[in-house]
Amino acid sequence: MSDKRQHIIKISAALMHSKGYENTKLSDILQAAEIGKGNFYHYFESKQELGLAVLDYIFSYWKYALLENILSADKDPEVKFNEMLAWVVNQQKRNQSKCGCVFGNLAVEMSEHDETFRRKVESVFDQWTDKLARVFAEMIGPAAGNDQQIFKFAQSIVAMLEGGILLMKSKQDIAVLENVIELARTSVRHFIQQYKQ
Amino acid sequence: MSDKRQHIIKISAALMHSKGYENTKLSDILQAAEIGKGNFYHYFESKQELGLAVLDYIFSYWKYALLENILSADKDPEVKFNEMLAWVVNQQKRNQSKCGCVFGNLAVEMSEHDETFRRKVESVFDQWTDKLARVFAEMIGPAAGNDQQIFKFAQSIVAMLEGGILLMKSKQDIAVLENVIELARTSVRHFIQQYKQ
Amino acid sequence: MSDKRQHIIKISAALMHSKGYENTKLSDILQAAEIGKGNFYHYFESKQELGLAVLDYIFSYWKYALLENILSADKDPEVKFNEMLAWVVNQQKRNQSKCGCVFGNLAVEMSEHDETFRRKVESVFDQWTDKLARVFAEMIGPAAGNDQQIFKFAQSIVAMLEGGILLMKSKQDIAVLENVIELARTSVRHFIQQYKQ
Amino acid sequence: MSDKRQHIIKISAALMHSKGYENTKLSDILQAAEIGKGNFYHYFESKQELGLAVLDYIFSYWKYALLENILSADKDPEVKFNEMLAWVVNQQKRNQSKCGCVFGNLAVEMSEHDETFRRKVESVFDQWTDKLARVFAEMIGPAAGNDQQIFKFAQSIVAMLEGGILLMKSKQDIAVLENVIELARTSVRHFIQQYKQ
DNA sequence: AATGAATGAGGTTTCATTCAT
DNA sequence: TATGAATGAAACCTCATTCAT
Fold first, then answer.
1. CB-based contacts of A64: which residues, under 8 Å, 6+ apart?
2. Shortest CA–C1' contact from C4: which nucleotide?
3. Closest approach of chain D CAs to the CA of C64, in angstroms?
4. Ranges of H-type helices in chain B
5. How would you class A102 by CB atoms within 10 Å of its CB: exposed for 0-12, middle for 13-18, buried for 19 or more?
6. Which site from A48, C44, C128, D91 is most exposed, i.e. has the minimal number of CB atoms within 10 Å?
7. Cβ of D166 and C159 within 8 Å?
8. Residue nearest F21, CA–C1′ metric
9. Window from B76-80, D34-38, D152-156 with minimum mean pLDDT
């Protein structure tokens, strides 16, 4: 995969995160990436192909930084959970609480009228939920049995975070997310306790 | 306010809920509302004005159905909370879990590049949170003192619901939302208990 | 049907006759018709719709001038046949033997990759053949029985004319067409005689 | 002349026969010929040069197969004429009556706006007509005198065939061509008879 | 002899908005 | 109030050709 292609993807990732997919015009990309109109189509067949490549690119970063480095680390599961929360907040602070979560954004923008995008985003959330469920299972310890229930709980925690980011974006105030995260922490504590008894 | 104007708003509300603001083209609206191109601009100065009017219109329905009829009713607060959850699920079932929440959608689509939209959506969430906080205060009873803390909790519950709707939209499966709602219920129980002790 | 739409069709008819369908660019049309880019799409959904409208327009002229006024007139069939030949030559002389026959041109350009065009052109040739076959039947008189055979003969005469026009266009010399027409005349004479015996 | 150049020409010949000149994109050629973009311009100065080379290439095959092997053979002229007709039908059957005659197609597409193409195609038809005229002269025998008249007749027969192919392409039905060929045969019989008397 | 990146004019189409009636 | 024609900038995409290696 050529450097230029990768460069276009990176540039577009930032633009699409901030403006959304449809609202990121090819001309924005060309200008930001400093390439000619025709040249873009040398690297990508269509804007959609770029969009999906951007999704892949951002997810590969997530996978590395969150799913692997944090959630799959050989550490105490509570530490891993806390690191995840810190990481999520950090990501949002980087763009001054304005952009929200790329995957959440694309879920909202594209799910209904582009099945390819929908599927990709769905899979991102599923993978995240899976890894998170495993961390919860570690917390519970050997007693952990009902995978289905843990997965459902993890899914709700992911939803809380995405909802927190959404509200945060609406208010442009990181406090909202931090606040929601507090509840997430409490919820996890309660969830684990119920198994420990 | 003329009937025709109201008619255009209603038609547009459905379209914008499903397709988003930018993706709802004027031509879609004109066709659905069966009015001429020029005539639209007799009722609205611009598409943006229509968009804001749509927001107002949908919120007025929310206000009536949720904030007033449900959350401000003279009933047991637990009943009111449950009715709200049922109402939220019902709204989503209507559009087969495909459209999501109008306000959540617009928060994501518009917050960053249209301040007027952002403010309006922010206010919707704030009013919802306020009313919900009061319901929680009722649950707690006379002991309820720290308004700030209750407001924050209510905000997190709103975030959970919005996040649940977002994930539900991504998976096109109402079960996700119902699942998240289960956690919301538990969270509220714990939150109240902590005051009762 | 508005005047402007008709105007665009007329202008395009001339352009497409001379340059072919694909080679007539929208910008050529806009310039010749003196309308704006957007306005074109007020009258036509696409370039293809215009192309088909142009075909209809030219055929309506053919129908009137050739199929009805000449071939269906209440005259001696030989006179009608001769008038047709004269009309065909005249049409070509108008564009200095350079453009050829619109229908022949489109048959060649479009038949293989646009079924809608192909069908329309096919129908033009069929209608022409039909009318011509009737003229031949009149020449034969009451003895005329085998419609199938007369139709086939008429089809061959149409082919001769189209082939004559094609060669004429290639040589840019009307003499080729006139030459072919001489053979057409002879062929008809022989064909009729064979029935008269 | 390098092998690669020849290879490109052959590949392009098939494409241009089926899609026409303008509609055969360089990218189609590069893909089919499996060569790089820049390399094409090592072998050809432009698309036009390729187009003309394709014309030459196809004509060289015609010359060999039709003009020499068939029409110039040392056989009875009637046999040669019949072999020509069979050959023509065969050529069309190969592409399921869909493509038509390359030279006819290019005559229609290019004559008006590319003089170089026009001349080349014109010369093809002229050479074909010449050879055919000689076959007719052989049929007539020593009495054959008026070369001009025989040439004109041969030209009309060529026109008939081209017209038959055109109509066949429009209807996508080989029967049309076979039908026209029947008339061609009859015409030749009559033409010769008139000299024999 | 070969590669594929770069160019840039031009292709069809879309769309919010304005104008004339 | 209402109509629909007109506008024109901008959208995505195509394509023959040139350039650097």
1. none
2. F5
3. 22
4. 3-19, 26-33, 37-43, 47-62, 77-94, 102-110, 115-140, 147-171, 174-196
5. buried
6. A48
7. yes
8. D38
9. D34-38
Residue C186 pLDDT exceeds 70? yes
**Cα–Cα dist A164/A100, whole Å:** 9
Q: What is the pLDDT of residues A146-169, one digit of tens each?
A: 799 999 999 999 999 999 999 999
Provide the whole-model pTM: 0.92
Looking at chain C, which runs of residues are DSSP E strands?
A: none
Which pLDDT belongs to residue A2?
77
* pLDDT at residue B57 greater than cutoff 60: yes
- Picking from C100, C160, C179, the nearest residue to D108 by CB comes out as C100
The whole-angstrom separation of Cα A42 and Cα D28 is: 15
d(C-alpha D109, C-alpha C110), whole Å: 11
Average pLDDT for B60-80: 98
Does residue B144 register a pLDDT over 80? no
- pLDDT bin (cut points 50, 70, 90) of residue C195 is confident
Q: Which is nearest to B43 in space by CA: B77, B67, B12?
A: B12
Q: Does A166 touch chain B (CB under 8 A)?
A: yes
Contacts of A194 (CB under 8 A, 6+ apart): none
Token pair listed for D78: 């009637």
Q: DSSP letter string over D2-62? A: -HHHHHHHHHHHHHHHHH-STTS-HHHHHHHHT--HHHHHHH-SSHHHHHHHHHHHHHHHH
Residue C89 near residue C177 (C-beta atoms within 8 A): yes
d(CA C182, CA C54): 31
pLDDT band per the 50, 70, 90 thresholds, residue C152: very high
- Whole-angstrom Cα distance, residue C11 to residue C29? 7
- Token pair for residue D61? 């095959």
Do B166 and A162 make contact, defined as CB atoms within 8 angstroms?
yes
d(CA C114, CA C100): 21
How far is residue D121's CA from residue B45's CA, in Å, rounded to a whole number? 61
Q: Indicate the SS3 state at residue A74.
A: coil
